[in-house]
Amino acid sequence: MKEELIMDTKERLIVALDLAERERVLGLVSQLHDCCGMFKVGLEPFCNYGPAFVKEIQEAGGRVFLDLKFHDIPRTVAQAGRAAARLGVAMFNVHIAGGREMLRAVVEEVEDETGGKRMPLIIGVTVLTSLGAEELFNDLGIERQPLDQVLFWAEIAKECGLSGVVASPREIAAIRERFGEDFLIVTPGIRPAGSSAGDQKRISTPGEAINAGADYIVVGRPILQAVDSREAARRILREMEESRDERK
Ligand SMILES: O=C(O)c1cc(=O)[nH]c(=O)n1[C@@H]1O[C@H](COP(=O)(O)O)[C@@H](O)[C@H]1O
């Protein structure tokens, strides 16, 4: 029974493959493919191994979240989105800070590429989880508090037809309340009790994120750096499962 529940919850766990060693990454994919819903291929593995690597993960049975955080002029991002759709990724992301025209252009181009069928989820990055109020103001000149800025950008993402947003655990409840159940929330900055925060600032445990209403959680180092990565992933799944039970 518990095993069945875990299988359901596993779709919500995204493992970030932030590693440079190709064999290690492929080893993790085979070790973890039955305890997570997607593998996130971000800048590090993509710059090391390119699109062929995405294909290799897909051939090994993994669904891919392509995390390249597109942020450029509308045409460039739209064409990159088309290429991501052709790669067959399940999800990719763009910075909402690129503006409405960029966001609308990428949605349109991906719809055109896929004919609206089997479209990848397009997720908007709000305020990076490594930024706090101080950096937001001092480094980006943004006077709003992180929560207000996230809600401001989430509104734009929704208006432009994105599937949802990436936001830290601290903003999940407010996004859910304002934008409803159909707007996806993808949450990195996840740290099981006892893990070190590293460069992340706005963090929570897996259970807290699920309780607050996250659809997906993204976990990198707490799984990658564990002595037993599979056991670490399964422990996170158990915590997520317990929190879903509490939320019902
Ligand atoms: O878009 C992301 O996935 C992302 C957005 C964000 O605001 N913060 C953030 O940490 N991420 C990604 O989520 C992952 C978190 O990794 P860990 O901090 O190692 O669990 C990294 O791959 C980041 O690139």
TrEMBL record:
A GO cellular component annotated for this chain's UniProt record is: cytosol
Q: Which PROSITE patterns match?
A: OMPDECASE
Active site per database record? 67, 69, 72
Q: Is Transcription set as a keyword in this record?
A: no
One biological-process term from Gene Ontology?
Answer: 'de novo' UMP biosynthetic process
Instruction: Write down the superkingdom of origin.
Output: Bacteria
- Pathway in which the depicted protein is active: Pyrimidine metabolism; UMP biosynthesis via de novo pathway; UMP from orotate: step 2/2
GO molecular function term, any single one: orotidine-5'-phosphate decarboxylase activity
Where do the TM regions start and end?
A: none
Q: Which CDD domains match?
A: OMP_decarboxylase_like (cd04725)
- Residue span(s) of domain Orotidine 5'-phosphate decarboxylase: 12-236
Alphabetically list the UniProt keywords: Decarboxylase, Lyase, Pyrimidine biosynthesis
Q: Which reaction does it catalyse?
A: orotidine 5'-phosphate + H(+) = UMP + CO2
Question: Which residues make up the binding site for substrate?
Answer: 18, 40, 67-76, 129, 191, 200, 220-221
**What EC number(s) is this enzyme filed under?**
4.1.1.23
Please verify whether the record's keywords include Lyase. Answer: yes
Question: What Pfam families does the record tag this protein with?
Answer: OMPdecase
Q: What quaternary structure, including any partners, is listed in this protein's UniProt entry?
A: Homodimer.
Main function: Catalyzes the decarboxylation of orotidine 5'-monophosphate (OMP) to uridine 5'-monophosphate (UMP).
Q: Which PANTHER family match?
A: OROTIDINE 5'-PHOSPHATE DECARBOXYLASE
Q: Which family does this protein fall into?
A: Belongs to the OMP decarboxylase family. Type 1 subfamily.
What name does UniProt use for this protein? Orotidine 5'-phosphate decarboxylase
Originating organism: Thermacetogenium phaeum (strain ATCC BAA-254 / DSM 26808 / PB)
Which gene holds the coding sequence for this protein? pyrF
